[in-house]
Amino acid sequence: MQKSWVCPASNGIRAATKCPSTWAKPTSKRGLGDVSITRTGRPIIRIQGGRSSLGGHTATVFGATGFLGRYIVHRLASRGCTVVVPFRDDMARRHLKVTGDLGRVVFMEFDLRNTPSLEESVRHSDIVYNLVGRDYPTKNFDLEDVNVEGAERIAEAVAKYDIDRFIHVSSYNADKNSPSAFFRTKARGEEVVRSIFPETTIVRPAPVFGFEDKLLHKLAGQANLFTSNHMRERFWPVHCIDIGSALSVMAEDDSTAAETYELYGPKQYSMAEIAALVDREIVKHRRHINLPPRLLKPLADMYNRFIWWSQTSADSVEREFIDQKIDPKAKTFKDLGIEPAEIANYTFHYLQSYRSSSFYDLPPATEREKREEKKYLHVIDDQ
After folding, report:
1. Is pLDDT at 35 greater than 80 in this prediction?
2. Are 255 and 337 in contact, with CB atoms under 8 Å apart?
3. Whole-angstrom Cα Rg for the chain
4. What is the pLDDT of residues 321-356, one digit of tens each?
5. What is the model's pLDDT at position 26?
6. Angle of helix 115-122 relative to helix 151-160, nearest 10 degrees?
7. How far apart are CA 102 and CA 79, in angstroms?
8. What digits encode the pLDDT tens for the residues 183-238?
9. 3-class DSSP state for residue 64?
């Protein structure tokens, strides 16, 4: 039988007898390497240890309940950082609670037009991410309200409390002279935050693919029926995991301050080529009917007014005619030491659920099978 140690006691009072040394372990000593000095001279302690480690940083992530937000929150919280998550919808934040250890993810209700709520969300942080963005107008917020005025209020709160790092996520093709209102407002938002907080790191991601994206799932769904440019828009799709890794690296590297990053994938595709990848993976053919923009724009604008979720808009039709352009002066994944993933390697992973039961367990074709497929001409005889 295993013996147990019990400290002797008399008269109901625990005696001051010295207990075995195995009961109390001395606390580990902190080395000089565990102390890090931030840009503003604030010392923080960082200790590696996985989910329960001490990350030292306190980060506020605006837009954490969106597509990219969950990936950066997970990376920060799993390293022991305290993450402040401003939110509007109580149901949209639930999945973020389990991304970190107990007490590491803190939720604060906010409103983009309420300056005190923004200041309360950033006042205790040393890193602030702005992932808030909108590519279609609603009855409460238009593109100017979110992409320009909202970014301005967040930047003013960051400047007021002199936050160490501010990382603003913009968009590819951000240009003040763009025919797209979304690209114009994103460019104006970049100018505003840089004028208020010059050390802002600006990130311009390409169209992103992943489990919750608006690229692969939109092409695989049945609602994406009408197009306007014969799906000839060209861009470099980027993986959501790579964007999360890049944003995480920027938080630890002060040399990324006041820099602009263009984050895009390794290969350029047209929308038609990605649609072909999707059709091949789901073993179905999705029809796409091309309509001229003068007809599709008013239809999309009317459709956007009657529904409250993101489906289409007049500006999304305009963006179909704009190819992605890369700023040669901006830094890329290479400067962060990250190798971006290829979209063709992940279509099976993300689109398997769209297959019918007849093909659900069919594995993706290997490179050898793809080469063999091209050698033969398949003829189907229905007679």
Report:
1. no
2. no
3. 26
4. 999 999 999 999 999 999 999 999 999 989 999 998
5. 46
6. 50
7. 13
8. 999 999 999 999 999 999 999 999 999 999 999 999 999 888 899 999 999 999 99
9. coil
Its pTM stands at: 0.84
- CA–CA distances in Å: residue 383 to residues 149, 376, 377, 378, 380: 65, 21, 18, 15, 9
Transcribe 268-334 into DSSP letters: -EEHHHHHHHHHHHHT-----EE--HHHHHHHHHHHHHH-SSSS--HHHHHHTT------TTSB-HH
Tokens read off for 265: 């994938």
Alpha carbon distance 127, 84 (integer Å): 10
C-alpha distances (whole Å) from 64 to each of 48, 131, 146 are 24, 7, 15
Distance CA 117, CA 210 (A): 31
Task: Look at strands 289-290 and 260-263 and give their pairing.
Answer: unpaired
Instruction: With cut-offs at 50, 70 and 90, classify the pLDDT of residue 298.
Output: very high
